Amino acid sequence: MEQREHPDMSNTPVTVLGLGDMGTALARALLKAGFRTTVWNRTAAKAEALVPEGALHAATVAEAVEASPLVVVCLLDYDSVHGTLAPVAASLAGKAVANLTSGTPRQAREMAAWAADQGADYLDGGIMAVPPMIATPAAFVLYSGSREVFDTHRAALDALARSEYLGEDAALAPLHDIALLSGMYGMFAGILHAYALIRSEDIKAADFAPMLGGWLNAMAGAAAGFAEQIDSGDYAQGVVSNLAMQAAAYDHLLEAAEEQGVSPELLAPLGPLMARRVADGHGHEDLSGLVELLRTRP
Ligand SMILES: NC(=O)c1ccc[n+]([C@@H]2O[C@H](COP(=O)([O-])OP(=O)(O)OC[C@H]3O[C@@H](n4cnc5c(N)ncnc54)[C@H](OP(=O)(O)O)[C@@H]3O)[C@@H](O)[C@H]2O)c1
């Protein structure tokens, strides 16, 4: 494998723009790891609060960018990133910008192009953690964009969380981030509906929780099986529970919700998709074939 030479940046100064809950956790992790850390935040008090921990408080964005070769950005959204960086665009030339602000794949590509126009090297990042998890083994950050920035500043990035590089296209990190969160929220929707059903009788959610957790863990294995069917386009391979049967059983879920006085709104959308796929002649296949109905672009 090709080995690239990178300057030793294990102690490089780092700037953090944005000290909300997440930016503060990132800055603290860098300080703890011994990086010379300059911080800036729109509301200055949050930057001042980190000074006793060793942070250098830059009064302006320009000063903050000037202070370090690596600029980590963690603001509310891409509009605030653009609004913060555009006035100091001229000072970004030659800088490495790691933008860990959540956004969409399109926003990441546009930001990468804008940064390139300013002469900056751009790395996009998706943080797969909540602030207390930062700098613990449970946290990871997905990166995409400049491989050069990722390799050169790996020590600082690794001080935040486990770092995973996905490729040169800046859109890859937010795409994976959002796909993971979509899976998570789908699961949360099911969990909330399940608890609403259980609470419709005199049963404590806590008494049901171990059974639900165990069941979800067992079902998580379906992700790998579905992936094989989706990649091959053969939704009839290895079918254990065919879609026609599942569609019929799903009607019971909706019926039971109504009987128990639980709104079906979190669960309802899957039903018509199953019925459509069965009506299209795919009843003998697996549930995974529903992705064919979800994808509106080839
Ligand atoms: N918290 C999490 O669990 C979590 C997990 C993964 C990813 N993230 C992502 O990390 C990013 C930051 O999240 P957070 O939890 O730190 O949010 P937060 O606590 O609400 O902080 C938001 C930050 O953005 C700044 N900001 C907002 N609008 C601005 C503007 N127009 N110009 C300049 N600065 C502006 C705020 O400055 P002020 O202090 O002046 O208001 C603050 O520093 C978000 O993109 C979020 O989706 C968060």
Query: Looking across the biggest beta sheet, what order are the strands in?
Result: 3-2-1-4-5-6-7-8
CATH superfamily of the largest domain: NAD(P)-binding Rossmann-like Domain
> Approximately how much beta-strand content do the residues carry?
5-15%
Biggest sheet details: 8 strands, mixed
Shape assignment: elongated
Oligomer classification? single chain
Find the CATH topology of the largest domain: Rossmann fold
EC number: 1.1.-.-
Domain 6-phosphogluconate dehydrogenase NADP-binding: 14-162
Protein name: NAD(P)-dependent oxidoreductase
Domain NADPH-dependent reductive aminase-like C-terminal: 169-295
What would you say this structure looks like, in words?
InterPro entries: 6PGD_dom2, 6PGDH_NADP-bd, HIBADH-related, HIBADH-related_NP60_sf, NAD(P)-bd_dom_sf, RedAm-like_C. Pfam families: NAD_binding_2, RedAm-like_C. GO terms for molecular function: oxidoreductase activity. This protein is α/β, with parallel strands linked by helices. The protein has 2 domains: 14-171, NAD(P)-binding Rossmann-like Domain (Rossmann fold, 3-Layer(aba) Sandwich); 176-294, N-(1-d-carboxylethyl)-l-norvaline Dehydrogenase, domain 2, CATH 1.10.1040.10. It is 49% helix and 12% strand. The chain has helices at residues 21-32, 44-48, 61-67, 78-85, 105-117, 147-152, 154-160, 172-199, 205-219, 222-232, 243-259, 270-282, 291-294; strands at residues 14-17, 37-40, 56-57, 70-73, 96-99, 121-128, 140-145, 162-165. Helix 11 (243-259) runs antiparallel to helix 12. It binds NADP nicotinamide-adenine-dinucleotide phosphate.
